[in-house]
Design brief:
- This protein is an all-alpha fold.
- Among the domains are: about 55 residues, no CATH class; about 40 residues, no CATH class.
- The chain is built from six helices and no strands.
Length: about 140
C-alpha cells in the first residue's frame, strides 16, 4: 500500500477500488465503503463503471430501522402496562382543518398600514421645514 501513491492516478484509484473489494470480502464493510467513496469521487470515475458497481455492492441494503424480538422475560423492576383498546364512537367529531395561508395572513401585518420609508422621510422633512418657517405660528408648531 505505501508504494501505490507513486503510481499514475488512474492506476492508484483502480488499486484503491480493488482494495475496497477485498475489504468488503473479509467483512470490513465500513472501511471498504470509505475507500469506495474516495474512488467514486475521483475525476476518473466516469470512465470506470466497475467502480460504481463496487460502491453499489458495498452499500447493500438500506437499513433505516432495527427490529427487536419480543422477549418473554420481563425484569422485576419493569411494570407491565395493560393493553388499552380505543373505541371509536359516533360522538367524535372530525378534526378541524386549519388554513395555513389564512393564519399567515392574520399573523403578518398588512403592508398598507405601515407608511413607506420614503413617505416617513418626506413627512419628517415637511414637518421640519414647516416648524422652522417664519410664517408658522406658535399654535401650529404646538399642533405639530
Amino acid at each position: 500500500m505505501p508504494v501505490i501513491k507513486y503510481t499514475p492516478p488512474h492506476i492508484y484509484f483502480d488499486l484503491l477500488n480493488s482494495y475496497a473489494v477485498e475489504l468488503g470480502e473479509v467483512g470490513r464493510i465500513y472501511e471498504a465503503r470509505n475507500i469506495s467513496e474516495i474512488v467514486i469521487h475521483s475525476p476518473f470515475a466516469f470512465a470506470y463503471p466497475e467502480w460504481q458497481d463496487t460502491a453499489n455492492d458495498l452499500r447493500g441494503l438500506n437499513r433505516s430501522f432495527v427490529a427487536f424480538k419480543s422477549s418473554r422475560y420481563i425484569p422485576h423492576n419493569v411494570l407491565p402496562m395493560p393493553v388499552r383498546e380505543h373505541e371509536v364512537t359516533q360522538e367524535s367529531k372530525p378534526a378541524r382543518v386549519m388554513s395555513l395561508q389564512k393564519w399567515k395572513e392574520k399573523m403578518v401585518k398588512d403592508k398598507k398600514d405601515e407608511p413607506e420609508v420614503k413617505d416617513i422621510k418626506n413627512m419628517l422633512m415637511w414637518i421640519m421645514n414647516a416648524y422652522t418657517d417664519d410664517e408658522t405660528s406658535d399654535h401650529e408648531r404646538y399642533q405639530m
